[in-house]
Design a protein that fits this description.
With 274 residues, the protein is α/β, with parallel strands linked by helices. It has 9 helices and 9 strands. 34% of the residues lie in helices and 14% in strands. The chain has a single domain, classed as Rossmann fold. The strands form 2 sheets. The protein has a 6-stranded parallel beta sheet, with helices on one face. The chain has a 3-stranded antiparallel beta sheet with strand order 3-7-6. Keywords: Carbohydrate metabolism, Coiled coil, Hydrolase, Isomerase.
Length: 274
């Protein structure tokens, strides 16, 4: 299942053969959801099918007060799972600094840097069981920008597994891009897997836009894609699942998977694959 978003992601970020002066700008998440995608991207790179030399990345979030080289920092996560395995220039990697002297200024500079590149082309994200995207937890403004965020106790408790089960060691604050920051991207891909996120998926696509389920904001995005497994659909109405699977079936029969890349280029204006 995760091969699909990896293929989509690599196509969108590299098929236009971006020049150095106009790099392709991507937004990236951490957590369990994207690990399979990152493995696939590394494999594509090792096979010589993609290059990230002219790609600029912006990560969604980072803990406040956790040393950059801490094994559970998102800096460490990204370098261990993706960046050190591909050819992206280190200077093109952007991750929020949770140890900055002025956290508010760090957040504003992050927003300004995104704007300096002309915005983000493609933002990929995962969600939590409560439907939060990045660290935009229930109650976050759907117009929010990059900022300091106090983590909900449920999030702290869920993340304790990465800190030896000790809740006291989990950071209580984080820097995160806002819902508005994500929604400003020209394309958004959200990966939702597992039965523990089934309610969030149902809230995301079967109910209205609601700041208590921040991922639901993608309903209003003109180019959004949700990638999910069967377990994540357990709370959806049967007719909803059948409807979307029927679309996939018709698409495969009429277009053919081998022609999807051509269709994507026509829709996005991307050039030939490198």
């Amino acid at each position: 299942m995760l091969h699909a978003p990896a293929q989509y992601f690599s196509l969108a970020s590299t098929s236009s053969s971006p020049p150095a002066e106009r790099p392709f700008v991507i937004g990236l998440p951490t957590g369990a959801s994207p690990i399979g995608v990152y493995k696939r991207l590394v494999n594509l790179y090792n096979d010589g099918k993609v290059s990230f030399k002219h790609v600029v990345s912006f990560n969604m979030d980072e803990y406040v007060g956790l040393p950059r080289d801490h094994p559970e920092s998102y800096h460490s996560f990204m370098w261990n799972h993706l960046f050190k395995h591909i050819d992206i220039p280190p200077e093109n990697v952007n991750i929020l600094n949770g140890n900055a002297d002025d956290l508010q200024e760090e957040c504003q500079q992050y927003e300004d840097k995104i704007k300096s590149y002309g915005g983000i082309e493609l933002f990929m994200g995962g969600i939590g069981p409560d439907g939060h995207i990045a660290f935009n937890e229930p109650g976050s403004s759907l117009q929010s920008r990059t900022r300091v965020k106090t983590l909900a106790y449920e999030t702290i408790l869920a993340n304790a597994r990465f800190f030896g089960g000790d809740v006291s060691k989990v950071p209580k604050l984080a820097l995160t891009v806002g819902v508005g920051t994500v929604m400003d991207a020209r394309e958004v891909v959200v990966i939702i897997t597992g039965a523990n996120k089934a309610i969030a998926l149902a809230k995301c696509i079967e109910e209205g836009v609601n700041h208590m389920w921040t991922v639901s904001a993608i309903q209003t995005h003109p180019r959004s894609l949700v990638v999910c497994d069967d377990d994540a659909t357990l709370e959806l109405h049967v007719k909803t699942v059948r409807y979307f699977k029927s679309i996939e079936q018709v698409q495969d029969e009429m277009i053919g998977r081998e022609n999807l890349e051509v269709l994507h280029r026509k829709q996005t204006g991307l050039g030939a694959s490198i």
